[in-house]
Amino acid sequence: MTNAAQPAITSVGTLSGLTVTAPINGSVTGSAATVTGAAQTAITSVGTLSGLTVTAPINGSVTGSAASVTGAAQTAITSVGTLSGLTVTAPINGSVTGSAATVTGSAQTAITSVGTLSGLTVTAPINGSVTGSAATVTGAAQPAITSVGTLSGLTVSGTVIAATVSATTFLGVTAIQNVVSISTVGSGTYTVPAGVYSIEVTVVGGGGGGGGVALPGTNGHSGAGAGGGAGGMVIHAYSTSPGAQFTYTVGNSGAGGVTATFIGSSGGQSLFNSGALIAGGGSGGATMTPALTAGTTATGGAGGTASGGDLNLPGATGRDGIRAQSSATIIVAISGLGANSRFGDGGAYRMATLTNTAVNGDTAGGFGAGGGGGVASRISGASSAANGGAGSSGIIIIREYR
User: Fold this and answer.
1) pLDDT tens track for 177-221
2) How far is residue 100's CA from residue 92's CA, in Å, rounded to a whole number?
3) Contacts of 221 (CB under 8 A, 6+ apart)
4) Residue 109 host element (H or E)
5) Which parts of 257-327 are beta strand (E)?
6) Euclidean distance between CA atoms 91 and 109, whole angstroms
7) pTM (predicted TM-score)
């Protein structure tokens, strides 16, 4: 047949081959090597395919297996099976289960909790609470940390404000265990007790005696003695061990000035650790000869020296005695105050006015303070001499630390 169109032919027998160049309307049975038309909208299903390549998005559902889904965006895929691996380069919206080798996005605001982490490095401040353990908090300032649990140790290199501390070691000094005060004048040996590994020693020298005044021999004469100086003070810390021994000496008090010179005696020096720490005694107060001359002074005793310690504090100087006015009708004489120490009060002053007066100097209190000066005056008839007040002895205080 030579005509291309044969509309009256409605069926043919078995064909050895068939080439169709236009769309087929209706159904076709048999086999075809190739369907050459790109668009076959009438094909709604196929049998089992040995392979399928899809280059455009797939609408609907697909069963079977595919070597690769090549389209970058597959919005219709809402779930997948178990994946052997997954790489995500953009933020994840929604929830994810399974495991990921690395989350590469630095900001993951949707992640509110994680499981047990084998390690965690945080380079910025942490807002909220954290439980678990961290090897090191590297940020120097952590103002949000207001409390911590039990610490095995704590080292503080700056100032601690309003701190309540109960620790084995704090600021390089161990917790205090006991305080030992040695006030008996003389020498001895201190032995470090069990459990003590450092001590802080305070050594104070004896205070000087106050100056006295001789008998005024003439009416209108008066005199006032000066106050004694305070003993020096030394403070020193030692690292030590139980059983270690330290020799010491506690200085005596200086006597007040009496008949003969009426000059106060110096206090004795206090020593610790075979004389390595030396707290000198305060000097005695001077005297003055009773007379009429106004404006005369008796010099206060100098404070004791201090050496060998971490902190060396010389003692304070006693106050001068003064004859402000002295005549047959007006007498004003005031003795010098004894110098105070860190651990004692100096002797008080005495005053003579328009009477026959003889008042001994006041004795110092506590430890290491100077005695007060005496005062004497004569208006008429007989009077008496006045002695200076004694200083107070030294002391050694040992604070024991675990």
Assistant:
1) 899 999 999 999 999 999 999 999 999 999 999 999 999 988 889
2) 12
3) 290, 291, 292, 326, 377, 378
4) none
5) 270-272, 277-279, 296-298, 306-307, 311-313, 321-326
6) 10
7) 0.60
